[in-house]
Every structure is written in C-alpha cells, then in structure tokens.
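Input (structure):
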C-alpha cells in the first residue's frame, strides 16, 4: 500500500510538471516568457530581439525603442544559452505585425563547426513551457529535436530530473555570493537581474589570451544557416539584423577576427549586420561574458543608434 501511494504521488508530480515549471525557478524558465508572448495574440511587438544571456543581460529594449522612435513595442526575448539555432524554433511564430527581428549572437558560436542541434534539456524545457513545434519550423530546421514528436507522457517523464533543479535554484540565493533580483528574469524588456557591477572575485573567473575562442576558421554550417534564416524572413517581409555582441577585452582583446567575419556575413543577401564585438571596455562587464547595467546601457544606446541609421521599413 505504501509503495502504491509513493508511486501515485510521483506519477501526479510528473503530470503536474507544466504547472510546477511555472511555479519554481529553473535554468531555462525564460522559455515561459517567450511562450506566453507568442500565445498572447493581442500583444504584437514591432521589434523582437532574440539571443543568449549576452543580450539578455546586455540589451534594454526600451532604450532601443526610444532610439528608433517607434509607436509599437520592442521586446527582448533572449534567454540563457539561446543561440541563433534555438531562436529559430520561434521564427515561424513571429507575428505578422512584427517588422524587425534582431538576432544577437556570440562570437564563439560563429567559430563552432560542430553539427547544430538543440539539447534535449532545452527541448524538454520548451515543451513544459507549452511550446509545440509546427510544420513550418520542421521545414526550416530539418534536423529538429525529435522530443517534440514524443507524447506528453514521455516528455513529462523525461523532465523528472527537474525536481533537483527546482530545489537548487530555490536555495541558490541563500548560498550564492552573487546578488540578484530574481523577478527581473521574467521581463520582456530588460531581464538583467544582477545588482552588482562586478562579479565577486572577478579576476578569478576571467581567462586571458582568447581562451575558449577557436579563432582559426569561421564555421561554414553556421553561416549557411544564417543565410537560410535571412531568406526566410525576407520571404515574410520582415527585416532581419544580426548583432555580434561585445567581447570582454580582458578575455580576448583580438577583435580583428570578429570584424573580418562580420564583413563576410554582410555579403549574405537580405542580411544586415551590426558588429559590437569591440564596443565595451572591461569595466562595463559584470563577468567574463555579460555586461553590467552600465554596459547594457552603452550596448542598448549603440544598438538603437545603428538600427536607426539603417534604412528600415519601420521608420
């Protein structure tokens, strides 16, 4: 009898995962923000910004909106480790009223020639948030994560390890030496939640000489997919701008190679490129990768100005 009760409780918890996922903090809970936006039909952003944590911490879409002087909203739908391949799972759901999609990318992604794929952990997180893949996305991403074809029961069961994540993230503020405002994570404008300008023991976590950056050869398959995405939005009459996010000079002062790759990307039809890789001094970085709030203001101002200088249809 006791075993049956335990089994019943565990089964109930697994089926309650979509609800629990919204109630408790997790590493990828920004997927909930994206899903809620795309399901809200009357919320039509004129400008949509995608990207990983670099743009999540580094772009205040309200500043971009003010620079562009547009009547509609500009939304920052970036999330942790959301590379442009993950962003593309949402491309088909960009609303017809949207005039501009800004895709922020990080330099390391450009030089990674491995096969593009969405990790199962990300796919399950998206599924728990309510995401369901459509035919248009399957056409855009032929090698999409097949978890989206699995049954709800299978995906809910695969998410059972998330219970440890809930506990970890719930206790993290108590033991972590970083200070942050958790509620900011769910903002559609500026989801920057660190309150300090510099990570405690910053120098301990900063690696020099471009460690972690493979700068030998830009990725051909990444470039190919960017080209495909640019063509996709051109067919939908939506402008597509690729933004190379700032690189911390304490980590990699050699930004010439990024500039060279930006020049190469500008040769792609229907694609506009903004290179911010060398924009920030190290004092504007919270840690080795992410801008602090002062840096975010610099990035947002510059991004807005450069977008304004382009001949965009929204102006």
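Output (sequence):
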């Amino acid at each position: 009898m006791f075993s049956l009760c335990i089994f019943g409780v565990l089964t109930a918890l697994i089926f309650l995962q979509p609800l629990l996922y919204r109630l408790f903090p997790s590493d990828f809970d920004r997927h909930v923000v994206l899903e809620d936006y795309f399901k809200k039909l009357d919320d039509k952003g004129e400008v949509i910004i995608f990207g990983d944590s670099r743009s999540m911490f580094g772009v205040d879409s309200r500043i971009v909106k003010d620079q562009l002087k547009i009547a509609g909203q500009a939304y920052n739908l970036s999330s942790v480790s959301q590379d442009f391949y993950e962003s593309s799972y949402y491309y088909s759901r960009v609303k017809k009223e949207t005039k501009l999609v800004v895709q922020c990318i990080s330099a390391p992604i450009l030089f990674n020639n491995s096969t593009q794929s969405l990790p199962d952990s990300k796919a399950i997180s998206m599924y728990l948030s309510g995401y369901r893949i459509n035919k248009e996305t399957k056409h855009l991403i032929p090698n999409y994560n097949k978890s989206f074809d699995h049954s709800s029961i299978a995906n809910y069961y695969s998410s059972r390890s998330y219970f440890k994540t809930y506990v970890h993230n719930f206790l993290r503020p108590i033991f972590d030496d970083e200070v942050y405002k958790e509620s900011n994570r769910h903002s559609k404008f500026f989801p920057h939640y660190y309150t300090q300008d510099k990570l405690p023991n910053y120098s301990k976590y900063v690696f020099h000489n471009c460690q972690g950056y493979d700068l030998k050869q830009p990725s051909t398959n990444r470039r190919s997919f960017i080209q495909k995405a640019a063509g996709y939005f051109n067919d939908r009459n939506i402008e597509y701008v690729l933004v190379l996010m700032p690189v911390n000079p304490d980590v990699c002062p050699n930004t010439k190679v990024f500039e060279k790759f930006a020049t190469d990307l500008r040769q792609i039809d229907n694609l506009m490129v903004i290179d911010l890789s060398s924009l920030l001094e190290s004092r504007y970085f919270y840690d080795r990768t992410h801008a602090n709030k002062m840096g975010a203001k610099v990035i947002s101002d510059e991004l807005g100005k450069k977008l304004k200088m382009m001949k965009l249809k929204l102006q």
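Notes: The radius of gyration is 20 Å. DSSP finds 14 helices and five strands in the chain.
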